[in-house]
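URGENT: need a sanity check before tomorrow's submission.

F., can you look over the Response regulator transcription factor record below? I want to be sure the sequence and structure line up before it goes out.
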Amino acid sequence: MRQITILIADDEAEIADLVELHLQKEGYHIIKAADGKEAIQAIQSKSIDLAILDIMMPGLDGYEVTRQIRERHLMPIIFLSAKTSDLDKITGLVMGADDYMTKPFNPMELVARVNSQLRRSIEFSQPTPTTTNITVLEAGGLAIYPEQHKVTLYGEKVELTPKEFDILYFLAKHPKQVFNIESIFQQVWGEAYYESGNNTVMVHIRTLRKKLGEDQNKNKFIKTIWGVGYTFNG
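Structure tokens as predicted:
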């Protein structure tokens, strides 16, 4: 079995070394990059399973690295940054990151989040005997193809990040059923709910709605039940 490879891109060598130390204890192979350009080169030349990116890097910042990764890859991306404002976190998630941790950080929490992201990524990529029998979910011009990880709206492909797809698919599988933010986080992220999970879910749903054209389209696919949670209005 191929060893899982993780990219750590951070211009602070001490941080990169600390993360490397803890992840190597988990048995992961580590590749380090000191700036954004090195990170892109590693992505292009190596088989990377997950990327941990700083935002404030010389050359290309973490946002641009994420944008370029998302043009070709669905690997999990975790931001590890000293930028702590809600706007920074929202920007990171909108750009396509799956998770966001702020510095200073607990190395063991980072390891737990890495394990969680990889577990879900690997589970999704494994073919199963029933994969080809999964029914396409359709509602009001929206079509969700689980086996292809693809979404179309009136025949046009909608580009979603992995987590945006997971949220949409989870809600669409249970139409009219209301889920609170904690339940959505636990189902989609596959880990125990933590404090910042609230903003994480809401940001992903906000960007998901925008990509589905709900600002202009009267057909609201994801409905907010105030004080309770969200439901798929299929």
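My own read: Residues 153 and 218 are 14 Å apart (CA to CA). The first strand starts at residue 5 and ends at 9. If you see anything odd, call me.
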